[in-house]
Amino acid sequence: MHLFGKAKATQASPKDAIIKLRESLEMLEKREKYLDTKIEAELKIAKSNATKNKRVALMALKRKKAYEDQISKISGSRMTLETQVMAIENANVNLETMNAMAAGAAAMKQIHGKLDIDKVDSTMDDIRDQMDLANEISEAIAQPVGFGAEFDEDELNKELEDLEQEELDSRLLDTGIDLNLGPSVPTEIPAVAQAPRPNRKQVVEDDVDAELAALQASMAM
Fold first, then answer.
1. Could you report the per-residue pLDDT of 3-40, keeping only the tens digit for each?
2. I want to staple 60 with a disulfide (CB 3.0 to 4.6 A). Which of 45, 164, 183, 205 is the partner?
């Protein structure tokens, strides 16, 4: 017993409300089916007494009409309850969706609370610096190692030319041509400048011509 006013009504959860509404819908559906059977029965009575006893037939039609009015009201009540069920279900879905979205927002806020744009920029700068350093190290490793030796390129080129000249001279000797034969060379060097030393291209061409002449001579024998 409550001495100080009425007790507060317990707040029903969406699930409990939906269950209660569905129970009411089921009850109204059963009531509607029962009234349908009563209407069919009164209609039979009216048909069977339409010519024999009009008063009985008329009373049966009145009862039938009353049952039809009740069914009409029940149909309206069922529509209202079904609308409430759908509204509660939609509201419950929206509530669950909002709760999920709120939980997601809270999780993102917690994660972003440990980050800021300055930290992100700093981290990205560190990553770029380390990538640049890795590329520089890779390029340094790929460079050939001379073990500290330095060479005179001009001296090497001069030595290479001498070797090429020796090779050409050797090939000319192999053709059987005596390099000492030819017109007598004056003992005194004329005042005019000596002819320039044949270059490699000229020597190669002379070599080819000499080999060709030797081949033709051997074929004529």
1. 445 555 567 787 888 889 999 999 999 999 999 999 99
2. 45
What is the rounded radius of gyration, in angstroms, for the C-alpha atoms of the chain?
59
Q: Which amino acid is at 210?
A: A
pTM, rounded to two decimals: 0.44
| Chain position carrying tokens 């269950």 | 19
